[in-house]
Amino acid sequence: MTAFAHRHIGTTAEAQRTMLSAIGITPDAEDDPIDALMREAVPATIRPTVPLASSLPIAATETEALAELRTLAARNSVRRPMIGLGYYGTITPSVIQRGVLENPSWYTAYTPYQPEISQGRLEALINFQTMVSDLTGLSTANASMLDESTAVAEGMLLARRASKAKSDVFVVDADALPQTKALLATRAAAVGIDLVERDIAGGEELPEELFGVFVQYPGASGLVWDPSAVIDAAHLAGGLAVVAADLLALTLIASPGSLGADVAVGTTQRFGVPMAFGGPHAGYMAVRQGLERQLPGRLVGVSVDADGRPAYRLSLQTREQHIRREKATSNICTAQVLLAVMASMYAVYHGPDGLRRIAEDVARKADALVVRLREFGMAQGLAHDSFFDTIKVVTPGDGAAAVRRAHDRGILLHLLDGGTAVGISVDETTTAEELGAVAWALAADDARPESDEAVHDRPVDLAGGTPLSGVPDALLRTDDYLTHPVFHRHRSETAMMRYLKTLADRDYALDRGMIPLGSCTMKLNAATEMAAITWPEFAQLHPFAPAEDVQGSLAMIDQLEGWLADVTGYDAVSLQPNAGSQGELAGLLAIRGYHLARGDEQRTVCLIPSSAHGTNAASAVLAGMKVVVVATDERGNVDLDDLRAKIAAHAEEIAALMITYPSTHGVYEHDVLEITAAVHEAGGQVYIDGANLNALLGHARFGDLGGDVSHLNLHKTFAIPHGGGGPGIGPVAAKAHLAPFLPGHPQAQRAEHAGGFVFEGGPVSAAPYGSAGVLPISWAYVRMMGADGLREATGAAVLAANYVAARLEKHYPVLYTGETGRVAHECILDLRPLKEATGITVDDVAKRLIDYGFHAPTMSFPVAGTLMVEPTESEDLGELDRFVEAMIRIREEADAVASGRWPAADNPLVNAPHTAASLIAGEWTHAYTREDAAYPVASLVTDKYWPPVRRIDQAYGDRNLVCACPPIEAFA
């Protein structure tokens, strides 16, 4: 085992032999301790005859990997970004960087589906929702989106659902961000939406029929204008108005809600989150009253716990695609929680006054730049008199030359209008000296000072700038925002540090113990892997910086793409999708594009097993496909007879089959090669969902199983942290014939996967390389594990799952196993017999696990009434045994209820979890003791996690929807 793999994999060779003995395997003395199990579990038909991942370099030590990353980082040039276009320099307060971004209590947490142990994250997210709702002037905001451009696309789809208009026309602002226009074209073409671009700020009339209109506010060119008349016109036509708004600008200018908008979207990147070469950043979406139940993604709400005290939890349609599947309104399954937390804490730390001061400072800089440009005789070149932070200048000479002059001064500008104009965006990091250099670079030759020294001698006079000179009086904001006490209490670093610590202590993350979530792979996120993401050479890059400035990042991306292609058996990889759901969509769009390019327009049917992840069906619909469900057999495998029947029934219409391998039931299907061959014979393509790649890596490859395309969850198999529900990255990998149809991007530094049509190669994320800022994590993971380490990790994960299954099968039936009786990397424990025998439900078991100091496994997916357990390779034998002991003791407690020792309505299970307050407040009247409640096993006496709230009433919260910060009195 390599040096780093030894640190990453929790079980030692001795522990693995103990575990193998427990599951009935005695390996030969000379045999690798896990190979015997893998030979049993993995079907012989898919095991390779030659070593895999031959192109991966020999595993590096942690020191060596960091040194290589330093070399790559040194090839990047960090210049002052004044490109704008949705990405800005920002100052991350050190207390937030260290207290959130670099704190494993925040970055190793999981999505808050178990709200009782997620109250800290949920409070941070409700702060985020309140911040967005207040600034946009709309009643309800969700808990973040993936980025601004995808948020606009979701806004377009929401408008289509909610509008009463029969039209397929969606009007797009000509002054929208270019990456948003490109992404809208990708998404609209797939679902039959007709995009119509209009210069709406310039007075160009709207079409007579439409279902929605999209406005950029302020515009990409910097123009600040009043879109209320356009919004009114859209409403008269029966459509909805979607406005993409800059949150910092909204501290000074009228909110979208006050102008009549139905939906506001955008990014929170400039609220303390580094540009990071494009992400991850938290997008946002807010809606007017009446559209709450149309919101995609996650929504945090307030309910009450068993004691009637306020408590946070996820609301309404969360994970609705798992319930509604092909009828889901969105395929988004993740968010950008870690980044949303950072942005919300930026607002908490600065408060409304601080945010306004930052905005005024930015506006003052923009005004001072305009003053200097006028001094240089360029008044006629200014495109707009109304602006906030962005100036468009029609250049008197060669615009490209002006951009080069600025570049030589360490400043990045961007060309507009074919090189005849230049855009300049200022931010809180811009200096007076830099503004002087920009003015010098833009000035006409006869006005520009001849000596370079003159630039440094003449910084722009910021004291003379006025903060609101570019904002029309009628658009000045007059209403309050961020009035809740949480945005006023934490001004000192001491107070902020303690607030972050208080919230973190309310949560359960990997730094406390195992999170055994099936289908989610909560594995170690090593500190060395995380180290590089805050280095300026990676964190401070603008996603549209010129290629010459980002050679180190491009080289790292090349290496990672190559490694991922090698270990999966594919020919090309795109790292652009910034979530697994976006990777699914990208892969299906590639398949659709391939068929269209061949003239097979009728191929629109996507076959999906009934056990599949819900996002599969939703993604297929968003790719313009029709879902046909394929049955599964009693072992949880694809029913071959039903598959053949469905293929025969749809013959020439088959576009694709989506399967997960190992299956969603956690089993290696022996007939996978027969399944993929049947689809290929029918002319279809095979999409293999990469959610369970942690059970296959190093032992088989998707491309060798008949896969044509797959997405890979870097936040599962490749060590990027879940961060409380995001960031996630879902790169898409494909065979050569689909490579031209992988995501492209109009602002990419180089041509990617060239050869497809505009639609087939369009972007699925705002930035060319998606959430590139966290790619050093997966690069470091692969580099330090090496091919052998990746293979060993898979074997350790499969062993851990089989050990748990074997230890617990006498207490809880294991629902699905392969033909040899083995599971893959996860096992499904069937709790339905327990309920029938004792009345104890899967919810009761999940909540009781909190009292034992555990996060519950995945509940009721893919089968209702079950727990899906995935222990991963990172957990040691002691932790696995601790979980097994907890589950056995819980079974004994349930039996005590069945025997009548404890009443059905009053026992430790139905009352779980137990808070410290519930144990000491008032007289103890329960049928069980305080010790039974709090310390069911002796180890908890010295190391106890106390949940901050009791069991939360989910239904109450849905009936009484509150999705913003409740008043302090509610907690009295």
TrEMBL record:
User: EC number(s)?
Assistant: 1.4.4.2
Any GO molecular function: glycine dehydrogenase (decarboxylating) activity
- Tell me the organism: Microbacterium pseudoresistens
Q: Which reaction does it catalyse?
A: N(6)-[(R)-lipoyl]-L-lysyl-[glycine-cleavage complex H protein] + glycine + H(+) = N(6)-[(R)-S(8)-aminomethyldihydrolipoyl]-L-lysyl-[glycine-cleavage complex H protein] + CO2
Concerning NCBIfam families, the annotation shows:
gcvP, PRK04366.1
Pfam families named in the record: GcvP2_C (PF21478), GDC-P (PF02347)
Q: Which residues form the Glycine dehydrogenase C-terminal domain?
A: 793-914
Boundaries of every Glycine cleavage system P-protein N-terminal domain copy = 6-441, 472-744
* CDD domains recorded: GDC-P
The protein's gene is named gcvP
Instruction: Give the record's subunit note.
Output: The glycine cleavage system is composed of four proteins: P, T, L and H.
Q: What is any one of the record's Gene Ontology cellular component terms?
A: glycine cleavage complex
Keyword check for Transferase = no
This chain belongs to the protein called: Glycine dehydrogenase (decarboxylating)
**Cofactor requirements of the protein:** pyridoxal 5'-phosphate
Record family assignment: Belongs to the GcvP family.
* Residues that bear N6-(pyridoxal phosphate)lysine: 716
Keyword list, A-Z: Oxidoreductase, Pyridoxal phosphate
Does the keyword section mention Oxidoreductase?
yes
| Annotated InterPro entries | GcvP, GDC-P_C, GDC-P_N, GDC_P, PyrdxlP-dep_Trfase, PyrdxlP-dep_Trfase_major, PyrdxlP-dep_Trfase_small
Q: What does this protein do?
A: The glycine cleavage system catalyzes the degradation of glycine. The P protein binds the alpha-amino group of glycine through its pyridoxal phosphate cofactor; CO(2) is released and the remaining methylamine moiety is then transferred to the lipoamide cofactor of the H protein.
Please give the biological process terms from Gene Ontology that the record holds: glycine decarboxylation via glycine cleavage system
